[in-house]
Write a structure and sequence with these properties.
Elements (H helix, E strand, L loop, with lengths): L1 E3 L13 E3 L5 E3 H4 L4 E6 L5 H18 L3 E7 L11 H11 L5 E3 L4 H6 L3 E2 L1 E5 L5 E5 L15 H12 L10 E4 L6
Keywords: Plasmid
GO molecular function: antioxidant activity; oxidoreductase activity
Organism: Paraburkholderia phymatum (strain DSM 17167 / CIP 108236 / LMG 21445 / STM815) (Burkholderia phymatum)
């Protein structure tokens, strides 16, 4: 089911985390931030919206790194109910695509809850002080990439790095709902 993200509460600090990554390490918020900001992407393996966006996510992460902005991917989906999103499959995807950023597993789903994440892919853009300045979409593409789509996330983060402020107009992310564990 397609889910749209709510507006971000701009100015809030990034919730801290320590999560295992597909490269065998654990990362904290401070490990993944860049000197000019951080993009946190809630993503997974199986969602068709994420699959369609992955080449552009990789492109933007590489371009943002040149601007001193870090990127991290976090999978919070229930890997038991959705085996394609298991940690083992995450490791395979990260290796296959040579992801240029850490891909972390939020098995407890506590990090997704702390960020109020609702869908994949969903993008959070933080400034150099780790204050939220952007919450929304990568671009106007959905499951079918639009070649001429504005690079909403990249342009927002470029502005944040230069001015400390996010864009006045922010568009919600749209993707698969996070697959919550039911207890």
């Amino acid at each position: 089911m397609a889910t749209e993200s709510p507006p971000g509460q701009l100015g809030v600090k990034a919730p801290r985390f320590t999560l295992p990554a597909t490269d065998g390490r654990s990362y904290t918020l401070d490990d993944v931030r860049g000197p000019n900001g951080l993009v946190v992407v809630f993503m997974c393996n199986h969602c068709p919206y994420v699959q369609a966006a992955l080449p552009r996510i990789v492109r933007d992460a590489q371009d943002l790194a040149k601007l001193g902005i870090g990127t991290v991917g976090i999978n919070s989906n229930d890997g038991i109910a959705y085996p394609e999103d298991s940690f083992e499959r995450m490791i395979a995807l990260a290796a296959e695509l040579h992801l240029p950023f850490p891909y972390l597993y939020d098995e407890s789903q506590q990090v997704a809850r702390a960020y109020d994440a609702v869908c994949t892919p969903e993008f959070y853009g933080f400034d150099s002080e780790l204050s939220l300045r952007y919450r929304g979409r990568l671009d106007a593409s959905r499951k079918d990439p639009l070649p001429e789509a504005d690079r909403d996330l990249f342009e927002a983060m470029q502005q944040i790095a230069q001015t400390g402020r996010g864009p006045d107009t922010q568009h919600p992310a749209l993707g698969c709902s996070i697959k919550w564990k039911f207890e």
